[in-house]
Write a structure and sequence with these properties.
Blueprint: E1 3-7, E2 13-17, H1 24-30, E3 49-52, H2 65-71, E4 81-83, E5 96-99
Parallel strand pairs: 1-5
Antiparallel strand pairs: 1-2, 3-4, 3-5
C-alpha cells in the first residue's frame, strides 16, 4: 500500500497508508486529519488545499484548468499547491509529502 506523508500546520508529520484509487481528501479524512472537503470533491471550494513538496510535484499529473482556476482563489496558494480531491493515490506516488496549510477558505460560504 502506498504511504502519504502529511505535514500538519503545527509542523508535525503523520504518515498514512492509502489505497490506490483513493483521493488525498479521502485519505486525510479517514486518518482523522483536518481537511474539510466542503464541496464533496466537486472542485467548488478549496478546503482540501494541500501544498505538495517541491521534490514530489513532478510525480503528479498536471492539474486541470478547472483545478487551476479554483487554486487562483485559494488562501495561501503556492507554486506547488493542489486540491486534495484531485490527487488520486497510485503506487507511483508512494511516499508523497504534502503540507496542510494553516488556513483554508471555503468558497461555498458554508
Amino acid at each position: 500500500m502506498p504511504s502519504i506523508n502529511f505535514i500538519l500546520p503545527n509542523g508535525s508529520k503523520q504518515t498514512v497508508e492509502a489505497r490506490a484509487g483513493q483521493s488525498i481528501l479521502e485519505v486525510a479524512q479517514q486518518a482523522g486529519l483536518d481537511m474539510e472537503g466542503a464541496c464533496e470533491a466537486s472542485m467548488a471550494c478549496s478546503t482540501c488545499h494541500v501544498i505538495v513538496a517541491a521534490q514530489d510535484y513532478a510525480r503528479l499529473p498536471e492539474p486541470s484548468e478547472e483545478e487551476e482556476d479554483m487554486l487562483d482563489l485559494t488562501a495561501g496558494v503556492t507554486m506547488t499547491s493542489r486540491l486534495g480531491c484531485q490527487i488520486i493515490v497510485t503506487p507511483e506516488i508512494d511516499g508523497l509529502t504534502l503540507r496542510l496549510p494553516p488556513e483554508t477558505r471555503n468558497m461555498l460560504g458554508l
